[in-house]
Amino acid sequence: MARHQKQHVPEADMMKTLDSRQPALFNLLERLSWCLPLVFLIGAPSVLITRLIFLHYYPGYFVNDSPTISETASHPPAYHFFEWTMALVTVCIIISWSLNMLRNRRRLSEIASGAPVLGPAILHTMAGLTGISAGLFLLLIAVFNLHDGHDVHMFGSWGFYITQATSITFDILFVLWVRRLAGISEEGDGLAGRLAVAAAAFIGSWFFLYMYETKGGASPEHRYAVQLVYVGAEYTLAMLFFFYPVMVHGELRRHFREFAAADRRG
Fold first, then answer.
1. In angstroms, how far is the first alpha carbon of the chain from the final one?
2. Which of 87, 195, 236, 244 is most buried by its number of CB atoms within 10 A?
């Protein structure tokens, strides 16, 4: 009979238990939330510096041509710099999406009892998993370059862009769904900024795909100009993907700081 008395503990109760047992946890999580802006602050300059290193050592590749991100990261020493910096970005991406998943679980636990939360729970889980996958694909791109693993690199490139776009889409849909369930417009959830970056990334993704599929058909006199546009679209899209976590940082840090302050008062 005793074994039948064990009951399932609701997620909200589990989170409260976690709060009471680990009062210093939220201080750590608040500090870790700085990984979100670091995705951009490390990722964006590193991609540009990789290009400058490649230009310095291999200027001939820029004569009537414009190398892509992958091409600039395929020769040493630019390759080694790109590999190590993207490894750091990967760590920041994984931490960022993990923190976002934790925050979103708490957001769902704050919704009134009885609200249907299965849909948004699936959304935020998928957002986190695809976001983490994007970080792993980025690492794959960095480790396997065009010359030492062309097929793996191209697979990682496609995987990175697809999972990045998918994770951002799921994340925004989750915020919209939670707003509707709560019946109010949540302040400070960064939705406006997320939507702006997501819209630009969505348009940029389709334009980049269009350029990728059609640039080979450009006439010889227009080929260089088309390549410049194509590479510009690639760099812009990468920057937008790196910048998206910055839009989430303020709300995420504020959330963990509030819980940390509550723990100190307790």
1. 38
2. 244
Residue 27 in any domain: the answer is no
Query: What's the pTM?
Result: 0.85
Give the separation between CA 156 and CA 78, rounded to whole angstroms.
Answer: 19
Minimum mean pLDDT range among 15-19, 138-142, 166-170: 15-19
Q: Average model confidence (pLDDT) for the chain?
A: 86
Angle between helices 78-109 and 35-57 (to 10 degrees): 160
Query: Which structural domain range is residue 201 located in?
Result: 35-265
For 201-221, the pLDDT digits (tens) are: 999 999 999 999 999 898 999
Asked if residue 5 is part of any domain, the answer here is no
**Contact indicator for 239, 44 with CB cutoff of 8 Å:** yes
Q: Annotate 110-153 with three-state secondary structure.
A: CCCCCCCCHHHHHHHHHHHHHHHHHHHHHHHHHHCCCCCCHHHH
Domains of the chain: total = 1
* 163 in any annotated domain: yes
Tokens read off for 243: 């910048």
The residue behind tokens 């080694």 is: 80
The per-residue pLDDT for 9 is 44
Those residues with Cβ within 8 angstroms of residue 230's Cβ, 6 or more apart along the chain or in another chain: 66, 68, 208, 211, 212, 215
Question: Which tokens hold the place of 225?
Answer: 């100009």
**Nearest-5° Cα angle at 47, 30 to 101:** 30
Phi, psi of 149, deg, nearest 5: 165, 55
Structure tokens at 245: 């976590």
